[in-house]
Amino acid sequence: MLFARNLLRNKTRTVMTVFGAAIGIAVYVTTTAIADDLRHQTESVIAGYDTEIMVQSRRAATPLTSIISAEDFSALKTRFGNNAVPLVIGSRREDWNSYIMILGATPQLVSKIGLIEGRAPVPGEREVMVGALISRQYGLSTGKYMSLGDDHYRVCGVYSVGSRLLDGWMMMDLGAAQKLLGRENQISLVMIRMTGVNDLGQLAKDINSGFPRLKASPAAEFVGNIRLWKTVDVFCKAIGLITFLGACLIITNTFLMAVSERTREIGILMAVGWSPLLVLRMLLAESIALCFCGAAVGNGFAVLMLHLLNKNKSVGLGWLPSVPSPESVGVSFVVALLLAFAAIIWPAVILYHFSPMEALRHE
Questions:
Q1: What is the rounded CA–CA span in Å between residue 322 and residue 83?
Q2: Terminus of the chain with fewer CB atoms < 10 Å: N or C?
Q3: Contact at 8 Å (CB) between 190 and 75?
């Protein structure tokens, strides 16, 4: 095949071009895989607990920074009764882990958590349930003790909910979590469970109008309304655009050099009957081959990057996927195809103005 022989003429340049495209695609795949996985995990956790409305403080960028006062929660409790379930979420920096997530919940919610062993924490006791990821990482089984702050807490149970994100956290009684996180009389989120409500959007609007310091969203829209996720989406799109343009410039430069070096050869091909379209088709085949090889190598780099990031304990257990999702891999090859077409636009313009006679005289 002619295009393959052309690529093998200068093996070093071909390899460097493939690696240039691979690095760009690896960055794109890694960032999108992390963002998509976090979004999907958060959505699956919310969907798994029959919640219709999620409430956080109005100005909070994420649930971690949300602070709902006891006064506002009391008002929600008066209106919705036991259907309003409070949560407190926070992180701790400990000697054994620099970023450990803690979820404080009521017995009403904790009782729905799938236990592998042990039992739920007793309110008022220094007890904690640990996720399966923490249990495996640190060898924490039921009956063992762990240090949190200035105290030691007994592991009363190990749970697994099928989400890496939540299985990398630990759970305790709401009051104990508030004390440990310095959030006395404050909560982070309120989950409202309502049955028989057809218009959840209108219910959320009613809560927002009645509670000016709070922001309510239907559970299905909650993740999309978090300002941090919107920032992450914009960031990923910006990274994707920058890497696409960078890889495009690398591959375009390769083909501009190829056209310059093969001017006389292209002139001969045109002299024996090749049209500029046939020459362009040959270059496009080379471009597609380079970009698809770059996509394959880039996905391998992405797996390696995710593996290394997961080794970094400061990121937090369960926050990052171990491999890119099939969707991310599929999109990367679509991006590679677009890259292949974009990279030969400039060479195509040169071929359009190509003169075979001048090319034959080219030294």
A1: 36
A2: C
A3: no
pLDDT for 360 equals: 55
How far from 293 is each of 21, 192, 314, CA to CA, in Å? 9, 50, 33
Given the DSSP bridges, would you call strands 100-105 and 170-173 parallel, antiparallel or unpaired? parallel
The bridge status of strand 151-159 relative to strand 84-92 is unpaired
Cβ atoms 63, 75 nearer than 8 A: no
Q: Which runs of consecutive H residues, i.e. helices, occur in the chain?
A: 2-7, 11-47, 70-80, 107-110, 132-138, 164-167, 174-180, 200-210, 219-225, 227-261, 263-271, 276-311, 326-343, 345-352, 356-360
Cα–Cα distance for residue pair 291/350, rounded to 1 Å: 21
**Which tokens in the block code for residue 21?**
């495209």
> Radius of gyration (Cα) for the chain, nearest Å?
28
Which are the contacts of 277, defined by CB distance < 8 A and separation ≥ 6? none
Residue 56's Cβ-side half-sphere holds a number of Cα atoms within 13 Å equal to 19
Read off the pLDDT band of 57 (50, 70, 90).
Answer: very high
pLDDT digits (tens, 9 = 90+) for 175-190: 999 999 988 889 999 9
Q: Which residue has the higher pLDDT, 311 or 168?
A: 168
Which residue is associated with the tokens 């310095």? 182
Q: Over pLDDT 90: what percentage of the chain?
A: 22
Report, as an integer, the average pLDDT of 108-125. 86
299 CB-contact burial (10 Å; exposed 0-12 / middle 13-18 / buried 19+)? buried
| Least confident span in 10-14, 130-134, 159-163 | 10-14
Amino acid making up residue 133: L
